[in-house]
Amino acid sequence: MEPASSGKVTGVYGGDRVPGLYMKTRTGVVRGEELFSRPDLERPWRSADKQRTAATIALKEKEIEELLRLCSNLRTELGNAKSDMRFLEYSITEKTRQQLEEKQAEVQTLKNQVDELKKQKQESAEAMESQIRLLRSQAENEALALKSETRIATERCAELARMYQKQIEDVKAAGMREVEFVESRFKARVDELTSELKAVRGTHATAADHYREQEAQSQSMVYKVEADYKERLRSSEQRVEDQRKEYEAQLAKERKDKELALANARKGTEQLVKALADRDDLVEKLKLWNRFILSHLDAFYHGFIAASPSLAVEPMGTQLQQLPELYAPRCILENPETKVAVERIAYRVTQLKQIKDFPSVSDATQQTQTQLHAPTVAQLDQVTERQARLLRAFHELEDRQSEMDATIASVASRLYFFSDNLEGCLRDSPTSVPPPLHDVVFVCLCVPTGRVMWTANTETMRSSMQLLYSALRLKMGEYGCYECYSDDVSMLLAFSDATAACRFCTEGQEWLLQLPWPAELLQMPAGQEERTSGGRVVFRGLRVAMAMHAGEAYVEPSGIPFHNAYRHHYYGTAVSQLVQMCFLAQGGQIVASAAAWNLCVRRKHELGALAAKSLGSTLITFFNSHTGIQERQSLELVQILPMELEGRTFMPQSKVPIPPVSALIGVNESVLAAEVAAVETQRERMRDTLALLQEECNHIQSEMGGLLARAQAAQPHFHILPPSEMVSQMNDLYSVMEKVAIRAEELYGDLQDVAHAQEELEAQARGIKEYFLQQEALLGREADLRAETEAVRQHLEQQLQTHRDKHRADIERLEQTVKEKEGAMRKVLQQFCKK
């Protein structure tokens, strides 16, 4: 920089000190000639007081200059702020006026759009209602047609069954009469022929002896065959016993192997724990040892280099980087601190290794330095040996650890099947319950809106129903429950004890609240959580309707294949009424008939705390399999709830909307299938009975043939009797035999006619069954169509509600914005008015 005036010198040693030009940098550091002319800097010719006074004066001058600059800046900023404020007020006023006009235009446009949307919504609602009415009318017409066809088919089936039963009864009566007539005639003729055949017995002695010989031979043959079969049976039993012993030995061996594996696992775990503890202890000791060695190596090297600085070396190369990995275990190098210590030790050792020439110093100095700093060769060898022993110990520890890991892995793989949890699960698994046969109490469960929920969200419903059935089936064995039928949304159960059935229903409603339902289900309207005013949870997850009833029912003795298992199905009046009761129940409600509730009240002390409420008398429509028509019967219904869920509220039965898709279609189909299976079983039994009758008829015919042959054989010996009596008796015998043969042929023909009629009835039953299967498929398609329609309707309602909420929120937001703008305009006008 140039001086402020010519002829004068700036700086510390100048005679006249002229302040130089200066420039303040961004960091606040003052640079330039003022460094030499500042009075606050220390001068050698000033005293301490003068120096402090000069520094104080300089500081005050700086503060005054700063304050003056600040005042000037503030005046400038104040003027700028006033001008900006006036411009801002004018711009805000103009902008607010323009925005107000724009918002008013937008509000008017939005109002027009809202009116148009309302008109469109009304038109779409009317169109949707018309479509829904059209679909409902079509579905009702199809349902009426299907019901009429089903009723006609049912009546036809009942009529055919009655005709078939009447024909069977007629055949039985005719057969019985014919058998009685034949028996009476046989007895009379046998008595007559007994006296006549006494004279013939002598001549038949040889034949009797021959017969006895044949009988003895056959008896001996039977004895031989029986002995052979007994021997085979004993050998098979012996083989079974040997296999059983072998299996028991294998089982005992497996148990011993399991115990040995468990012991090995425990022992291995203990050894692993000890090895890990030893490893940690050894690692800590190795860290201390590395620090000790490093400190001594540093002291030795620094002392050595201090004595001879010219011998200092800096080792380089890949060998220095590979030394830690070659001589240190992997577990040591995993720790960064230990790795650095090992690398430093390797570095020092490499430095000492590369030093070859030692300085020639006096013996005393060398001896003193050796005593103070340098270890002996023996000490270095001892350190190397210890380091080698530590390395070997670490390698052995790593080998033992790898062996222990392999042992534990093998033991774990062997114990996978013999784990305690698996044994506990197998031991605590629900036991199979036999189907109850007498005093059966039925329980029907269903999710009323299940079909629609399946159509709306299949994956969520699949996981939810699996969770529901898993929780219920784990408890069925404890309550003596037999599962008759189950599908995607319903289940039919049978109990031998009414109290157990009631407790299963009430406690089941409490279990459902505790299940970990999917989050998607809890967000659906039919699965969301509901609480009472006191904060108690009354609904959460799937809402299952339950119905309990007892009455007349039949069980199919032979199992019907269902879900890869054979299930005994129930049918009858009680089952049909139970299905209709469950159809009337709402989600989360337990409805019991008076018959079932009266059975429960007998042991009311075992039911726990319940809240029972009478629902009055209700007409129940059910299918009567005896008459083949639908009937109606009035039943007293009772609502049952546990005291913890007493806060649940339900709609009256008269106001409950009929769901478009029934959740009990599968149960109805199962009951009808059980009745059809029962009819087929009865038909098979009747066929077996007719086969037995036909076999007996054939046996009678063969006996008659034998009797006729014996009479013909005895005819030559009738010369003992008078000729006239002999001829009359033979004629009577032949006439009786001919009549019996004729009647037997007629009976055989009647049996063949009955067999043909049965085949025709079987063909008709097969046709009816195929018709029922077709109707079942049609009903399934109709149910799917109704479920899809209901899901679409709910989706459209949700979209309409979402649009309503969105438009309402937009209108509220616009109104709030208009209010805010009006408030801002009022404030601006008030400020203008004040000014």
TrEMBL record:
Residues 57-138, 226-264, 676-703, 786-831 form a coiled coil. InterPro entries: Adenylyl/Guanylyl_Cyclase_3/4 (IPR050697), Nucleotide_cyclase (IPR029787). Keywords: Coiled coil. This is Guanylate cyclase domain-containing protein. The lineage of its organism: Eukaryota, Discoba, Euglenozoa, Kinetoplastea, Metakinetoplastina.
